[in-house]
């Protein structure tokens, strides 16, 4: 279904290639988040190609509510719907359900919750999540899991992880069934399992071993970037990655800052996603080679330089900091669009540089240099 080739290693850092039915992904890769089949900030799928995006990520829960996965299926699946011919990963809705803490009940069969749009009662279990993702016809479907809040008691985490494992078995059975149907749009849909266990390394490792036995298409490390420290997060990654397969992609969910990405690549991660670059961009916070700047600051009022000198994104090629700051002050939508394009380009370019550094055998040196440059301004 998906073929992952490990091309090179430097320490634990991996340079890979993942072949899918919708094209080849060069890893490490950052997936650009288009929750509702669009990047927030008026960025189109055509823009994504221009800013060198390899994989787009959409959200199962949100698309199920609006416009409805049945509508997307009727229109030929997500690729046709949003006019994107490269890989798409859909996350399972588990994290959204986690963030609706006040509106949900977790049972063995799945989760009962209320829609954040109109309050209607919804049930989602492993089978429902897989059916929705099959209707969306994404390249990669994520298993339905419980994202554990941090901190959680050891006792709660053990019970939750056991249930996530049972749910994963149900996801696998259901994906296999759906992929065998004539009516399924993408009969090569892949399934990634998710490792959970909070910040308890022994539970994480035990869970990793369990899910590796299921021989899935890829493996994610979930339940991080939810309140633990960066050190705790790095420690979990370091402990878990050795127990995940060398011939399958490893995905760190919902992370994060450019520095987090460098540290996680160094510890063996291939796939990343985060709303952070787009969200920051919509608020005038932009990434540069010298760290992050806030374009609302008065000091940029007469600054004729681009956001980041030497950057080749559509914003930096054409506009100044002063102009973009003016657009924000005038509440023009173009301000958000330009900053989101810049930030996503910054992330996609960062991943290209990481891959080049791994190809050239100088990743450690590259990482050290980047962290120093970014921290110089921080």
UniProtKB/TrEMBL annotation:
Active-site residues, as the UniProt record annotates them: 91, 273
Binding site residues for substrate: 91-95, 145, 196, 223
EC number: 2.4.2.29
Pfam family for this entry, one: TGT
Annotated GO biological process: tRNA queuosine(34) biosynthetic process
A GO-annotated cellular component: cytosol
Entries under SUPFAM superfamilies matching the protein: tRNA-guanine transglycosylase (SSF51713)
Cofactor: Zn(2+)
Domain tRNA-guanine(15) transglycosylase-like, first and last residues per copy: 12-374
Reaction equation(s) it catalyzes: 7-aminomethyl-7-carbaguanine + guanosine(34) in tRNA = 7-aminomethyl-7-carbaguanosine(34) in tRNA + guanine
Top class in the EC scheme: transferase
Region (RNA binding): 254-260, 278-282
Binding-site residues for Zn(2+), renumbered to this chain: 311, 313, 316, 342
A single GO molecular function term of this UniProt record: tRNA-guanosine(34) queuine transglycosylase activity
Keywords, ordered alphabetically: Glycosyltransferase, Metal-binding, Queuosine biosynthesis, Transferase, tRNA processing, Zinc
Annotated pathway: tRNA modification; tRNA-queuosine biosynthesis
Cofactor-binding details, from the entry: Binds 1 zinc ion per subunit.
Entry's family note: Belongs to the queuine tRNA-ribosyltransferase family.
Subunit field text: Homodimer. Within each dimer, one monomer is responsible for RNA recognition and catalysis, while the other monomer binds to the replacement base PreQ1.
Function recorded in the entry: Catalyzes the base-exchange of a guanine (G) residue with the queuine precursor 7-aminomethyl-7-deazaguanine (PreQ1) at position 34 (anticodon wobble position) in tRNAs with GU(N) anticodons (tRNA-Asp, -Asn, -His and -Tyr). Catalysis occurs through a double-displacement mechanism. The nucleophile active site attacks the C1' of nucleotide 34 to detach the guanine base from the RNA, forming a covalent enzyme-RNA intermediate. The proton acceptor active site deprotonates the incoming PreQ1, allowing a nucleophilic attack on the C1' of the ribose to form the product.
Name used for this protein in its record: Queuine tRNA-ribosyltransferase
Species of origin: Oceanirhabdus seepicola
């Amino acid at each position: 279904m998906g073929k992952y080739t490990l091309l090179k290693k430097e320490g634990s850092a991996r340079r890979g290639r993942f072949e899918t039915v919708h094209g080849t992904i060069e890893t490490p890769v950052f997936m650009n988040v288009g929750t509702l089949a669009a990047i927030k900030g008026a960025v189109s799928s055509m823009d994504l190609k221009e800013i060198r995006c390899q994989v787009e990520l959409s959200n199962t829960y949100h698309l199920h509510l609006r416009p409805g996965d049945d509508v997307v299926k009727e229109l030929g699946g997500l690729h046709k719907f949003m006019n994107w011919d490269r890989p798409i990963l859909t996350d399972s809705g588990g994290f959204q359900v986690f963030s609706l803490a006040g509106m949900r009940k977790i049972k063995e069969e799945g989760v009962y919750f209320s829609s954040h749009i109109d309050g209607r009662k919804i049930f989602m279990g492993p089978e429902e999540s897989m059916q929705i993702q099959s209707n969306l016809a994404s390249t990669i479907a994520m298993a339905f899991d419980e994202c554990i809040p941090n901190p959680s008691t050891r006792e709660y985490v053990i019970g939750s992880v056991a249930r996530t494992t049972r749910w994963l078995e149900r996801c696998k059975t259901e994906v296999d069934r759906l992929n065998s149907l004539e009516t399924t749009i993408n009969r090569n849909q892949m399934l990634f399992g998710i490792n959970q266990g909070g910040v308890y390394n022994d539970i994480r490792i035990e869970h990793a071993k369990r899910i590796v036995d299921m021989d899935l298409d890829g493996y994610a490390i979930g339940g991080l970037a939810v309140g633990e420290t960066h050190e705790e997060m790095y420690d979990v990654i370091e402990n878990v990655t050795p127990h995940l397969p060398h011939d399958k992609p490893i995905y760190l969910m919902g992370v994060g800052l450019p520095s987090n990405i460098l540290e996680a690549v160094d510890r063996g991660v291939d796939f990343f996603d985060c709303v952070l670059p787009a969200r920051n961009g919509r608020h005038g916070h932009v990434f540069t080679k010298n760290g992050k700047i806030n374009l609302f600051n008065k000091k940029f009022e007469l600054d004729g330089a681009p956001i980041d000198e030497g950057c080749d994104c559509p914003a930096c090629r054409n506009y100044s900091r002063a102009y973009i700051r003016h657009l924000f002050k005038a509440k023009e939508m173009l301000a958000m669009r330009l900053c989101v394009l810049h930030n996503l380009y910054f992330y996609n370019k960062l991943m290209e540089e990481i891959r080049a550094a791994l190809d050239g055998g100088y990743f450690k040196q590259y990482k050290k240099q980047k962290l120093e440059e970014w921290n110089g301004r921080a």
